[in-house]
């Protein structure tokens, strides 16, 4: 259950700033989690929990969202999901030094994918996020995702393995625009 192209439907329910409901799906954190838990349960029932993953972005600010209670909300949500048998939990903007990431890792019994908290919207570090990813692995992440670095480097794994220079991301305004420019036209590493 990755976010759609525009993003953050589940987070719009989780964030008090965008969830203005006054019924059982709004207000306190437990109510705001209800929609996420019901969607995950319904999808898992339809296709099997071992084929479902959930991507969370604690503290996301996209689309004018603001999550002021992430230290209460996300541990409670992860606790509710812990026994669900999901294939993975994917945490975006993960920082291994933050107590919230450490708590999520401790409380999540399954595979944890972490996307490092890298400069945004600024340029990526020269290593594409490798060092930040290695810190997350050392902090207990099972897998690392490096979105922008992969977009700009179709052979990122090889480049990281041989310590080759990385293509620079040409601009986020070119990402996901429907054409190949800035999306699939980055040059591969030359032998």
How does this structure look, described?
It contains 7 helices and 4 strands; from the N terminus they run ααβαβαβαβαα. The chain is α/β, with parallel strands linked by helices. The protein has 2 domains: 137 residues, TIM Barrel; 46 residues, no CATH class. The protein has a 4-stranded parallel beta sheet with strand order 1-2-3-4, with helices on one face. α2 packs parallel to α3 and α3 packs parallel to α4. The longest helix has 19 residues. The chain is globular and about 60 Å long. The N terminus is likely disordered.
Q: Quick summary of this structure?
A:
With 191 residues, the protein is of the alpha/beta class.
Question: How large a portion of the residues is in β-strands, by DSSP E?
Answer: 5-15%
Strand order of the largest sheet: 1-2-3-4
Write out the CATH superfamily name of the largest domain: Aldolase class I
Q: State the shape.
A: globular
Rg, Cα atoms, Å = 18 Å
Order of helices and strands: HHEHEHEHEHH
Biggest sheet character: 4 strands, parallel
CATH topology of the largest domain: TIM Barrel
CATH architecture of the largest domain: Alpha-Beta Barrel
- Secondary-structure-based class equals alpha/beta
How many distinct folded domains? 2
Termini gap: 37 Å
- Specify the number of helices: 7
Percent of residues in helices comes to 25-40%
Low-confidence stretches: 1-7
* Structure summary, number of beta strands: 4
CATH class of the largest domain: Alpha Beta
Mean pLDDT: 88
């Amino acid at each position: 259950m990755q976010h759609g192209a525009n993003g953050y439907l589940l987070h719009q329910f989780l964030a008090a700033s965008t969830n203005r409901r006054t019924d059982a799906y709004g207000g306190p954190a437990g109510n705001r989690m209800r929609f996420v838990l019901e969607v995950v349960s319904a999808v898992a029932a339809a296709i099997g929990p071992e084929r479902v993953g959930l991507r969370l972005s604690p503290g996301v600010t996209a689309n004018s969202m603001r999550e002021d209670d992430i230290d209460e909300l996300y541990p409670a949500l992860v606790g509710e999901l812990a026994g669900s048998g999901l294939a993975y939990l994917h945490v975006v903007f993960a920082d291994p030094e933050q107590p919230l990431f450490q708590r999520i890792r401790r409380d999540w019994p399954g595979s944890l994918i972490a996307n490092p908290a890298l400069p945004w919207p600024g340029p990526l570090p020269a290593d594409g996020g490798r060092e930040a990813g290695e810190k997350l692995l050392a902090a207990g992440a099972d897998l690392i995702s490096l979105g922008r670095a992969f977009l700009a480097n179709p052979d990122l794994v090889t480049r990281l393995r041989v310590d080759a220079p990385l293509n620079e991301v040409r601009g986020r305004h070119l990402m996901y625009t429907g054409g190949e420019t800035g999306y699939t036209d980055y040059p591969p590493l030359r032998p």
